[in-house]
Amino acid sequence: MPPLIKHLYTADPSAHVFRGTMYIYPSHDRETDVGSNDNGDQYDMADYHVFSTAGPLDDPSPAVTDHGVVLRSEDVPWASRQLWAPDAAHKAGVYYLFFPARDKADMFRIGVATADRPEGPFQAEPEPIAGSFSIDPAVFVDDDDDAGGEAYLYFGAGGGGDQGAGAAGRTAAA
């Protein structure tokens, strides 16, 4: 299958079906002259785009819509750089974008931004999630439970993340 997105470099996508449409939430890596190093400085990821396709999921060449920049690092009050692999969720009429970024002390933290539509634009919360020194958020909303859609946030460690506190945690999305 050919790449869905050809006009810019994307990585680390998460895909979700909301309202019968598939939405793709990737990171966006820009070209840089910074050499490769253990800190990952060569990854110049300063914003997120959201893409969607309403065609059949087995279509080998679906039409893809780029909804443009939906969140920029300068719109995240606590972040300094490197918006890495995001994930998205929907609960109680709100769309959530969970994302790792480096804070002002250059540590990865996980933030959350909200929107009233899956394609954004997203508004970042003023602070990262407390205790979230990590990367690679993954969200699961359990809409089959008696709690009315309890949300779980799982996350990785490494790359400046919290190496000692374990690889997964649980938090409510709303």
TrEMBL record:
The feature of type site (Important for catalytic activity, responsible for pKa modulation of the active site Glu and correct orientation of both the proton donor and substrate) is located at 136
**Which superkingdom does the taxonomy of this entry point to?**
Eukaryota
What GO terms are given for molecular function?
hydrolase activity, hydrolyzing O-glycosyl compounds
Which GO BP annotation is one of this protein's? carbohydrate metabolic process
User: Which keywords label this protein?
Assistant: Carbohydrate metabolism, Glycosidase, Hydrolase
> Which Pfam families does this one have?
Glyco_hydro_43
Q: Does the keyword Acetylation apply?
A: no
- Identify the Gene3D superfamilies for this entry: Glycosyl hydrolase domain, family 43
Q: Which family does it belong to?
A: Belongs to the glycosyl hydrolase 43 family.
State the name under which the record lists this protein: Glycoside hydrolase family 43 protein
**What lineage does the source organism belong to?**
Eukaryota, Fungi, Dikarya, Ascomycota, Pezizomycotina
